[in-house]
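Colleagues,

For the teaching module next term, I've prepared a clean inverse folding example: a structure given as tokens, and then the sequence designed for it. I'd like students to try predicting residues themselves before seeing the answer, so please don't circulate the second half yet.
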């Protein structure tokens, strides 16, 4: 059964006890953006948190999105992101706790912190007014609206983009965290998935981590993001078509197929990590629960506990492939909010363009323009090498 719903602590409505002994503390930033602290089980941090007393400019207007009539895909036009922070020196890390000389985004020392992105691709407006967030003009009117044909179609890019700080430390990644901290982040992903899925107009919630400048990372601070889309993304739309073609039990059969094959990386009680049969990238690994769960909210405490250890082992194995950290995109695919929840199983797709210690895979014309991929490394060979690297790391306590 999924984990029990969080309970409010009666003495303070801004504090919520979550599963695993983790505590959520709700507050806001100086410009009204939500800031949520997630305290580790048994945290040593004080209960009191500093208020954000910066004098901030008003939030940018919600971006627009335009429909590409050749593909049916929606393209967000977010000019406000052009001026976002780009690789600042460590003393001006915008995700570190505030100091007298660094007016960062997070006022207090924290374990894990989540806040609304200052330069979002989506939002802050929603499909209808809620709390202090206004309803957007020209907002999408549900899934049927965004699928309609026609030239020159535009809609307001409603939704929300959040930043997830894994640690107050200025360098690192998810893989450098302790198992306890990883468990806190997983609980934050679950809690935010529930909250964001309930926002008016949100159709899909996507937690992810970009790691490495080669991927385009603009901050070295250990962090990820969560995007909440006003439509079902193209990748998931394609997956839903495949499930319709292959059968509702597709993920169950994938688990059985990969578990019996030569590409298994980690076979744990609740989770299976493997290199997929048709891997595209030089380094590619999938991680999936053995029991069906549409998203993080449907995981049990036992599954979350094991995921913290298994995910760290996988990421540290990826880093053990070479003498320097490996760039990657860690993409947590979840079922849409209102469709496919009985058939789309949440899973991680971790990909890296690193094909050698000093070489990256760049998409050639056939891959970038036509989506017709060529893989230079056979998946079985990639699995053998990554499995040895994971074994060299050992199990995470």
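(Answer key — instructors only)
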């Amino acid at each position: 059964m999924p984990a029990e719903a969080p309970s409010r602590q009666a003495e303070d409505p801004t504090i919520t006890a979550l599963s695993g002994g983790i505590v959520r503390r709700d507050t806001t930033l100086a410009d009204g953006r939500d800031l949520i602290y997630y305290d580790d089980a048994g945290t040593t941090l004080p209960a009191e948190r500093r208020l954000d007393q910066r004098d901030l400019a008003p939030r940018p207007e919600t971006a627009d999105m335009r429909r590409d009539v050749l593909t049916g895909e929606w393209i967000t036009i977010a000019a406000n992101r052009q001026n976002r922070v780009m690789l600042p020196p460590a003393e001006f890390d915008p995700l570190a706790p505030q100091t007298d000389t660094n007016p960062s985004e997070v006022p207090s020392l924290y374990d894990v912190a989540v806040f609304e992105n200052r330069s979002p691709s989506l939002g802050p407006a929603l499909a209808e007014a809620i709390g202090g967030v206004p309803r957007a003009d020209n907002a999408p009117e549900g899934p049927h609206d965004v699928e309609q044909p026609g030239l020159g179609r535009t809609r307001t890019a409603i939704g929300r983009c959040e930043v997830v700080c894994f640690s107050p430390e200025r360098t690192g990644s998810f893989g450098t965290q302790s198992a306890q901290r990883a468990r806190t982040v997983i609980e934050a992903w679950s809690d935010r998935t529930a909250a964001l899925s309930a926002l008016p107009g949100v159709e899909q919630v996507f937690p992810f981590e970009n790691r490495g400048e080669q991927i385009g990372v603009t901050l070295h601070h250990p962090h990820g993001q969560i995007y909440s889309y006003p439509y079902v993304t193209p990748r998931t739309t394609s997956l839903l078509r495949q499930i319709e073609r292959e059968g509702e039990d597709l993920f169950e059969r994938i688990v059985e197929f990969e578990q019996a094959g030569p590409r298994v990386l980690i076979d744990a009680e609740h989770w299976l990590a493997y290199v997929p049969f048709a891997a595209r990238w030089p380094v590619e690994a999938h991680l999936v629960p053995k029991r069906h769960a549409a998203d993080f909210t449907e995981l049990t405490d036992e599954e979350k506990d094991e995921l913290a250890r298994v995910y760290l082992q996988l990421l540290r194995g990826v880093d053990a492939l070479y003498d320097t950290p490996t760039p990657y995109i860690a993409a947590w695919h979840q079922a849409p909010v209102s469709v496919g929840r009985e058939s789309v199983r949440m899973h991680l797709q971790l990909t890296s363009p690193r094909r050698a210690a000093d070489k990256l895979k760049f998409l050639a014309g056939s891959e970038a323009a036509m989506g017709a991929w060529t893989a230079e490394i056979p998946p079985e060979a990639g699995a053998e090498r990554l499995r040895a690297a994971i074994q060299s790391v050992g199990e995470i306590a």
